[in-house]
């Protein structure tokens, strides 16, 4: 979902390790929601924060279930395009929860709840209200004070 180009790479040599690359910019070409996640990492030198940009719910769910005592998710922002959030422009909103439901067709839909009372439904299959098979299950739940 995120694209990078060679001319955007910052040449740092071996200073941060051979598997680390830094970029002046990345490109996001799909008009789909994504997630901006703040992680707190505990090290022998103290606590520091990293931010991740995740392109899909599965990546967020994997991160949520794989965290350890040394890595804590401090907050998740839903970044959504105007057609999705009905504002006409991109928004970044604190995410409270994501629920997942099953469609009769076998696919899934997601319900995103954001701070301030917003609720967005995404399925990639148009109107879903007549095609819902079962109840929703929680995929991610944050804190109201995130």
Quick recap:
With 146 residues, the protein is mainly beta. It has helices at residues 57-66, 82-85; strands at residues 2-3, 9-10, 22-23, 27-28, 34-43, 46-54, 71-80, 91-102, 108-114, 119-122, 137-141.
SSE blueprint:
Blueprint: E1 2-3, E2 9-10, E3 22-23, E4 27-28, E5 34-43, E6 46-54, H1 57-66, E7 71-80, H2 82-85, E8 91-102, E9 108-114, E10 119-122, E11 137-141
Antiparallel strand pairs: 1-4, 2-3, 5-6, 5-7, 7-8, 8-9, 8-11, 9-10
Architecture overview:
With 146 residues, the protein is mainly beta. It has 2 domains: 1-30, no CATH class; 31-141, no CATH class. It contains 2 helices and 11 strands. Strand 8 and strand 9 (108-114) form a beta hairpin. The longest helix has 10 residues, at 57-66. Residues 125-133 have low confidence and may be disordered.
Quote the beta fraction. 35-45%
What's the total count of β strands?
Answer: 11
Terminal CA distance: 26 Å
Name the helix and strand elements from N-terminus to C-terminus, one letter apiece: EEEEEEHEHEEEE
Q: Give the helix proportion (percent range).
A: under 10%
Structural class: mainly beta
């Amino acid at each position: 979902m995120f694209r990078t180009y060679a001319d955007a790479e910052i040449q740092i040599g071996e200073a941060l390790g051979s598997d680390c690359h830094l970029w002046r910019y990345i490109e996001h070409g799909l008009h789909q929601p994504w997630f901006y996640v703040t992680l707190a990492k505990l090290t022998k030198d103290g606590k520091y924060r990293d931010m991740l940009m995740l392109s899909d719910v599965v990546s967020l769910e994997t991160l949520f279930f794989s965290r350890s005592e040394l890595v804590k998710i401090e907050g998740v922002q839903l970044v959504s395009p105007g057609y999705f959030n009905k504002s006409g422009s991109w928004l970044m909103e604190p995410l409270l929860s994501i629920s997942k439901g099953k469609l009769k067709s076998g696919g899934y839909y997601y319900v995103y709840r954001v701070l301030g009372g917003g609720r967005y439904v995404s399925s990639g299959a148009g109107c879903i209200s007549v095609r819902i098979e079962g109840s929703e299950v929680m995929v991610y739940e944050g804190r109201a004070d995130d």
